[in-house]
Structure formats: C-alpha cells, structure tokens
Task: inverse folding
C-alpha cells in the first residue's frame, strides 16, 4: 500500500525540499505559463490586464474548471468519463426548463446536481460491479444522452429565464460568482483529497487496485462514490453554464468533454491513475481561457488556435514526463 | 491463452447472433433494407470507418488507443488538395504523398508514446488537436475541388459491380486478420497488450511493434482520407471530425478489450457491420437520427454487459 | 532547478513560435471567401437583372406526381438549433396547407458533411418523392443529390446551396449582396461613417457566412470607405464561446470598438449579451442576423437597434411550395416566377434560384409582431 501512496504529492513531506516543489511541479509550471502569458500579452496590449478582461478570463472557463475537479477524481481513481459534455448539456437543459416553468429557483439549482449524482452513480455501478471499462460505458452514455436530449427538446432554445435564476451573473465583492465557485470548490477538494481518508482511498485505487483491495479498501463502493461526486460537480458546472447568458441552447456543447479531460490531464492528473491534484486542473482551465483570449489580443488567426492548444498539451505532458523521470 | 481464446469466441458468437437478429428485425421493418443495392451502398459508406477500425483493433489490443485518426484523415484530405493544386504535383503523386503524410502523423504518435512514455490517450488527444489545427491552418478554410474524372472511381465508382473502396476494405480485412491471427507479429501484439513487462522480458520488440502499429494507423487514416475526398469530391478541414468515436465504438463492440490483450479482426468487422446496419436500417424503418444515436449507445453498453456476464467464468 | 528552467523555456518557446507563425499567416485575413463579389449600388437602386438560362438539374424518369400525395424529407445542415426549427415549422405548415404532402425533418446533430450525406443516401433508399436540403458544403453534397435526381426524386434546396446541376431549384432567402448592404448600412447609421467594427462569425469554412463577409467587405469599401474593419473571430454555433469571443473583443479594443456584427443566429444574441454584461449598451452597437425571439430582450432594452433576417418560417414554407410545384410540373426550366401559397408570386433569379425577397430589418417597433 505504501508503494502506491508514495506517488501522491501528499507524501511530499518525507522528501527533500526541492523534491517537494517538484512533486507539485505541474502546478508551478502552469502558474508560470499563465504569468508569462499575461506579461507578454500585457506588454503587447496593456488592455489584456484590464480588470474586465482578467475577470472574463477567470469567470469564462470557471464551469470547465468545476467540471474538471470531478473529472480529476475520476481519472485519479483510474477511470475516465467521455460523456461529461453531454451530461452537462442535459443537466443545463433540465435546470433551465424547471426555471422557466415556474418551479422554485432553488429546485432549478439543486435538481441538476441530484440528477447528475444519480446518473453517474449508475455509470459508476456499471463500471464497478459489472466490470465494464469506464470508457465503454461513457462512450455509450455519450450517445444516449446526446441523442435523447435532441429527441426530447428538438433543440428549442430556452428563453425568458427569470432574472434571479441567473446565478452565474451574480457578483460578490465585485467578483462574479463562478470565480467564487471555482476557487472555493478547488480549495475544499484539494484539502479533502489530501487529508481525508477517502481522498487517500481514491489515490490508492488509482495507484494499484489490488494493493488497495488487500489493504481493506472497498474498491467497488468507492468507485461508485467517485463517479457520484463527479456527477455532483457536473451538476454545479451545468448550473454555471446554463446561467451565464439569458438563453440556454438545450443541445450538447461541442467538444466539452475533450476540454474538460484536457484540463485535468494538463493539470497534472496522470491518466494512469494514482497521482495529480485538482489545483492543477483548475489552473489549466484558467490557462486555456487566457490562451483563447490572448489569441484575439495578439491577432493570431483563429485558424491556428487548435494547433496552439495541441502543442501546448504536448509540451506540458512531455515536460511532466521529463520531471517524473528526474524524480525517480 | 486458451481460456482467453474461448471467451473471445463467446463474445463473437453473441455478436453474430445479435447481428442476425438485428438484420432480421430490420428486414421486416423495411423491404428496402435487405437489397443488394442498399447493402453495397452501405459498404461504401462504412469503408472509411472500417479501414481505420482494422488498425485500431491492433492499437487497442496493445492496450493503447488512437484518438487522432479523425484529425489525420482531415489533415491528409487537406494535404492532398494542397499538393495537387497549390504545389502542382501530378494527382497520383499527391495521393501517395498525402497517405505518407498520414503515416508520418501516426509515426509521430508512436514516437511520443514509445520514446517519451506518454500514455497513448494523452499523446493522441494532443495530436488530435494539433493535426486538426494544422489542417485548419494550412487550408485557411479554402476547399480544393475539380479533380479529374478518374479520381472519383476510388470513392464513387464500382469495380465488377462492387464499390471500389469495398474491395480495398475487403483486402485489408484479410491482411489484417492474417497478421493479427497467424503471425509472430500478431502474437507480439497480443503479448504486449496482455502483459507489457512480461513481453519485454521474453524478448519481444514491444516498442518497435507499437511504432509500426501507430504508423499503420496513420497510414490507413490517410488512405481513408483520400477515399473520403474522392467520395465527396472536395476537401474541407473539418473532414473526419468525430470519426474516432465511431471507430472505437465499432472495435469495442467487436469484443476487443480496451485494457488490451484481447480482440480479433472478425469481431471488429462484425461490430462495424452491426453499427452500420443499425444506422441504415433504423433510418429506413422511420427512426430519426437522434433516436438512432440512442440505440447505438444502448447496444454498445448492453453488448459488453452481456459478453462480460457470459464470459466471466472464462476470464478467471 | 536547471530542469524546471528548461521546461519553462520550452513551454515559452513553443508558445512563442506557434503564435508567431500564426501572426505571420494572419496578415490578409478577414474570414471571407475568395469568390468574386458583386456589391449593390450605395443608394439601393436595383442592379439590372441579368437573364440566365436554367442551370439546375432534372430528375430521371420521374413518375407523374401531379396532384398525387408525395412523401418529402427535409435534411437541414443540422437539427436542434432555433433557425432550422423555424424552417422545419414552415415546411410542416406548407405541407399541412397543401394537404397532399407528408413531410418530415431529419438530419445530423452536428453540421457535418459526412453525416448529412448518409442521411440523404438513406432516404433515397427508403424511397421518398422529394428531398429538401440546406447544404453543409455545396460540392460535397452534390454526388448524393445527383444520385437522388437519377432515382427520379425531386430535389430542392434552401438556405445553403449546392452546385446548381445537383438540384432542381434553390430557394434563396436573400441575395448575398443584399444582406451585405443591409448589415453595413445599418451599422453605418448607428456608429457613423468613420466608426470601427468587428465580426463574430461561426467558422471560416461555413460557405454562407464567408460569402456574406466578402460581400460586406466589398460594399463597405465602395459605399462606406471610412469605416474601419478591425477583425473577424470564429465562435462556431456555440452560445458561450460567442459570448466569450465578443467580450474579449470589447476588452481588447476598448473605446475603439463601436460595433459588432453577429453573422449567425447564435452569435448575434451572444454578442448583445456580452455588450449588456460589459455595461456597454449604447456605446457598442450590435447588428446581425438573428431570430426575433432571441433578440427581444436586447431590442426592448434598447441595447440593439436593428436585427436583420429573412423569416425562416417563410423560407421553409416557400421551399415546400416550390417542391410541390416542381413535382406537379408547374415549375419548369425557363419559368420567371412561381406561385408560393400565401407568399404570392416569387421571382426566379440566376437561372434556377427562387428569391424569397429582400432581407427584413426588425426594430423595436415591429419585433413584437414576430414569434419564431
């Protein structure tokens, strides 16, 4: 068991100081990249660092960061979810429909979270008890949710949302609520992952299932729980996503699952399971927003946007691999 | 090994029975489903996914995955147009070079995966974005059209009454089936997926095998790209978007284990036909496109659940 | 420490290099296509109509369908967006009014050429009498449409054209240069002759949008030469992305940005939302193509003064009417107009296109009268 635990950053205090920094390396690299980007683009066009634009960068991708928290837990436990984009699309539509049809606002906020938990607990059960690989279950769910959503809504836009429902447009101390959600949830989950027994369980399962089982961890139940928690975060992300504007498109946002997975992975969550933190994935989501914004500021043709993203993922992952090799 | 083999056969039997049931059910729903013309036409439509799925079976059997195939398809399509029109190469040369470019894309995937030990899911997730981005950047949203008549034989023409690309698919099915089932290379592929460390210790050139497989994956994606251009007579940088999901669904439906070590070409072909038959047959029976997607998702999950339940004892 | 430095360096270099290459390629780019443009006269005098012979295709051995019940399928670019929901409604309305048409809409969930082709192919096999389509790509869709014609099926396009000889008629919602003029004139009226503006479009590969942008550029250069074209950004058909892109444009250009064009029915309301949330109502004008329902909140709050669009319900309605007339043999090559139910007589232009009319401008006064 201890072998599988030592890969987690939580084991860092036992290491020499520079190693401790290196164990959090991905977070520092991302923070450095965000700062470097801000400085470079800020020199080219100071308006990039204007309060409005920075707010927009932090708030714009907050729902991705929130979804990436849950995704990180799933990946750390050694699984994957490629249906999260479709799930968010469905939950956002449910939330919007409740809001416009006169149900209490709190229900419109809460329902997506509850439904997300139920749906993903089902997914988790298929994965844990029937031993179907998570990529297969979620690939199937992707089709079912996406096709089902369009069958039911025909993609009719939801408009006339009540003003007090639009939680993503609320501000506290001048800072938009999605930023609060992102920061508080990230901090809570990071602490919880590091200090709670269940957090360690997730790392243990992802690190070495058999060892975890031998150590007395109830692997199946924990797996279902991880997926259920992931569903709750997808629900929160869906509410933030739905209330950002005054209309909801009621379709599945294109490629959202790829963006969320990419944020987790670039944030340092190892796809092999067992390592990573949610701070990294949140920083990665912010970095993506900063890049998208800076492309416009630097007059880079949007034709090249995807190349830049791909190159960036590749570089971070290669850097991470090099760092891990050094650590060994 | 024998236990594995038996459980594999079991999955394929389940799948074959399922396929017969589905074909029968669909045939009763529409009298236009089970006609030679329709079936051949469906063969034409599934050729591109089929080609890529063959090599994807190898990739997944090694325990890997290649998400970048759709993007490689798009990139080759764009390069074909650029080589031919902008660089003035003769079309056959452009075709060969475009396919080779696809192979290079696959080789790069393989190098990242073997040399830098990057997990395949991440490596190809990155190149999925990178290759699509290159296709968009190089094309600058321009399409290349107006190919000579002979070029369309590949995607729109027939040879002896059967769509050209179906011949290509058929030939490659046999080649892939023989390589995976009967050769040393095939055994090395299984061994790599079943237990990579063990395979290394028993002297199998694991890295070389992987490199070859990912390169082949790029090459067939390139070939599929050229066929696609010939079929639709134009190039667009968004060609092949989402192809990887169809391909992986077909392969997994065909019984290839996503954890590696198990899978056959026959299974993949069955999975492919089942998927195409559902898409086409449901449409002919009046089910709309969004309903069809739901059914395919359900069939995928149920097929794997069924196979897991029936073969659990075989798995040990 | 060396290691971390080198990683940071690699990261920075990679970013820098890729961005520089991007800048180098970005020099002459507006998001338009490179087909010839044909801007209208600045005062709106109609260009003399150039008579063009019929250049559409003909179905082979089509059975006599005059007055008989027919089965029609409508395959739009994608299903599940407001715009094509509206055209689909128009088609259903017309089918109901005609009484002898059984119409249904089916299509891909993403604007994907491959899937659209498969859908049409399946419907050819299933044996329909007529196909209505809005093409994702004019060339890519041509082979399968020709196959439909060869099977004796009547084929009529709307919204987005194919190659002319791959279909019989195309119902054109408004001419490209007409849209270009309406958009640019409205913008000039709001932000003045020397104002500067930016564009939020879907993708640069979408043929209609690329065509409109080219025509807008040509018309602006001819009739409003002092207006300044800042840039064009892509936002797919994605609400949140459109909003983020528009917000970034506002942040980047600050007071220099006087107006935003939204080129899709998704981008325009999202841009209006961006202007609203940035507190720039009245300072940054939003003009674009959009459906009235999505724009009502912004128009009523005076944040948006004019929205340009044809009526998509009418467009679907006209397409269905044209298909019926074609199947009946009432609309033949060489005709100069066609009767389209409640829409009256519609003009034939460009050989084989039927013009729905001039684009319509919605304003605060009239937007309440529309519900789609």
Result:
């Amino acid at each position: 068991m201890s072998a599988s635990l030592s890969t987690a950053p939580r084991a860092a205090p036992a290491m020499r100081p520079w190693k401790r920094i290196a164990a959090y390396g991905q977070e520092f690299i991302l923070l450095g990249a965000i700062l470097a980007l801000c400085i470079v683009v800020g020199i080219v066009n100071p308006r990039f660092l204007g309060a409005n634009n920075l707010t927009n960068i932090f708030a714009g991708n907050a729902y991705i960061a929130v979804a990436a928290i849950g995704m990180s837990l799933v990946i750390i436990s050694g699984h994957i979810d490629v249906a999260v984009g479709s799930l968010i699309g469905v939950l956002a539509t449910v939330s919007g429909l409740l809001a416009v049809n006169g149900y209490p606002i709190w229900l419109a906020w809460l329902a997506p979270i509850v439904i997300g938990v139920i749906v993903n607990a089902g997914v988790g059960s298929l994965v844990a008890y029937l031993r179907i690989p998570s990529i297969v279950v979620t690939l199937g769910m992707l089709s079912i949710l996406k096709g089902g959503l369009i069958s039911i809504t025909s993609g009719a836009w939801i408009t006339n949302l009540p003003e007090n429902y639009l939680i993503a447009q609320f501000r506290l101390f001048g800072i938009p609520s999605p930023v609060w959600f992102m920061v508080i949830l990230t901090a809570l989950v990071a602490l919880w992952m590091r200090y709670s027994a269940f957090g360690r369980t997730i790392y243990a399962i992802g690190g070495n299932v058999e060892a975890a089982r031998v150590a007395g961890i109830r692997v199946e139940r924990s797996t279902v729980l991880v997926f259920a928690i992931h569903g709750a975060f997808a629900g929160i992300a869906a509410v933030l996503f739905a209330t950002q504007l005054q209309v909801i498109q009621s379709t599945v946002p294109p490629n959202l699952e790829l963006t969320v997975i990419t944020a987790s992975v670039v944030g340092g969550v190892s796809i092999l399971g067992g390592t990573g933190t949610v701070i990294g994935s949140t920083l990665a989501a912010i970095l993506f927003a900063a890049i998208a914004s800076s492309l416009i500021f630097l007059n880079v043709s949007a034709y090249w946007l995807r190349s830049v993203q791909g190159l960036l993922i590749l570089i971070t992952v290669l850097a991470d691999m090099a760092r891990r090799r050094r650590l060994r | 090994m024998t236990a594995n083999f038996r459980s594999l056969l079991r999955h394929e039997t389940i799948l074959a029975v399922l396929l017969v049931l589905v074909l029968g059910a669909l045939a009763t729903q529409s009298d236009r489903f089970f006609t030679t013309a329709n079936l051949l036409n469906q063969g034409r439509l599934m050729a591109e996914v089929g080609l890529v799925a063959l090599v994807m079976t190898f990739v997944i059997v090694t325990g890997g995955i290649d998400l970048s195939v759709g993007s490689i398809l798009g990139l080759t399509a764009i390069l074909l147009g650029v080589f031919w029109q902008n660089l003035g190469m003769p079309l056959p040369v452009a075709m060969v070079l475009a396919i080779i470019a696809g192979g290079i894309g696959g080789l790069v995937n393989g190098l990242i995966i073997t040399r830098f030990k990057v997990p395949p899911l991440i490596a190809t997730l990155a190149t999925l974005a990178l290759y699509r981005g290159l296709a968009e950047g190089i094309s600058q949203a321009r399409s290349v059209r107006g190919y000579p008549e002979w070029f369309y034989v590949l995607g729109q023409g027939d040879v002896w009454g059967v769509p050209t690309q179906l011949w290509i698919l058929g030939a490659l099915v046999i080649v892939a089936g023989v390589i995976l089932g009967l050769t040393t290379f095939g055994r090395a592929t299984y061994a790599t997926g079943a237990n990579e460390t063990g395979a290394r210790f028993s002297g199998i050139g694991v890295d070389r095998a992987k490199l070859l497989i990912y390169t082949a994956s790029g090459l067939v994606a390139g070939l599929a790209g050229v066929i696609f251009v010939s079929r639709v007579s134009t190039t667009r940088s968004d060609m092949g978007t989402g192809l990887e999901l169809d391909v992986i669904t077909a392969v997994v439906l065909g019984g290839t284990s996503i954890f590696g070590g198990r899978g056959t070409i026959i299974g993949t072909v069955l999975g492919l036909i089942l998927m195409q038959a559902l898409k086409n047959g449901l449409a002919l029976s009046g089910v709309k496109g969004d309903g069809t997607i739901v059914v395919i998702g359900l069939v995928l999950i149920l097929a794997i659940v069924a196979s897991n339940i029936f073969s659990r004892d075989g798995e040990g | 420490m060396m290691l971390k430095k080198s990683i940071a360096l690699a990261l920075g270099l990679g970013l820098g290099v890729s961005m520089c290459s991007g800048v180098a390629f970005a020099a002459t780019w507006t998001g338009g296509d490179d087909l010839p443009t044909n801007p209208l006269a600045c005062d709106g005098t109609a260009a003399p109509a150039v008579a063009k012979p019929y250049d559409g295709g003909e179905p082979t051995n089509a059975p006599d369908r005059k007055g008989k019940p027919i089965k029609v399928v409508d395959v739009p670019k994608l299903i599940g967006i407001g715009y094509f929901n509206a055209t689909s409604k128009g088609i259903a309305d017309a089918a109901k009014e005609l009484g002898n048409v059984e119409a249904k809409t089916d299509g891909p969930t993403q604007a994907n050429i491959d899937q659209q082709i498969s859908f049409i192919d399946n419907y050819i096999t299933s044996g329909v009498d007529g196909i209505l389509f809005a093409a994702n790509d004019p060339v890519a869709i041509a082979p399968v449409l020709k196959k439909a014609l060869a099977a004796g099926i009547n084929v009529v396009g709307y919204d987005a054209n194919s190659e002319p000889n791959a279909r019989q008629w195309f119902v054109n919602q408004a001419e490209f240069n007409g849209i270009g003029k309406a958009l640019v004139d409205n913008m000039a009226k709001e932000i003045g002759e020397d104002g500067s503006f930016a564009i939020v479009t879907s993708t640069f590969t979408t043929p209609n949008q690329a065509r409109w942008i080219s025509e807008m550029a040509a018309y602006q250069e001819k009739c409003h030469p002092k207006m300044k074209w800042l840039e064009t950004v892509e936002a797919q058909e994605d609400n949140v992305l459109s909003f983020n892109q528009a917000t970034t444009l506002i942040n980047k250009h600050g007071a220099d940005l006087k107006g935003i064009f939204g080129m899709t029915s998704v981008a325009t309301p999202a841009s209006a939302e961006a202007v609203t949330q940035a507190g720039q109502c009245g300072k940054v004008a939003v003009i674009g193509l959009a459906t009235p329902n999505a724009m009502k909140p912004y128009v009523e709050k005076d944040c948006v003064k004019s929205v340009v669009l044809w009526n998509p319900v009418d467009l679907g309605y006209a397409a269905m009417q044209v298909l019926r007339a074609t199947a009946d043999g009432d609309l033949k090559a060489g005709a100069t107009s066609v009767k389209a139910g409640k829409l009256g007589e519609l003009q034939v232009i460009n050989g084989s296109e039927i013009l729905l009319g001039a684009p319509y401008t919605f304003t605060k006064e009239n937007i309440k009268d529309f519900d789609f």
Chain B has one domain: 2-8+48-311. Residues 162 and 264 of chain B are 25 Å apart (CA to CA). Chain B touches chain A through 46 residues (CB under 8 Å). The domain at 2-8+48-311 of chain B is CATH 1.10.3470 (ABC transporter involved in vitamin B12 uptake, BtuC).
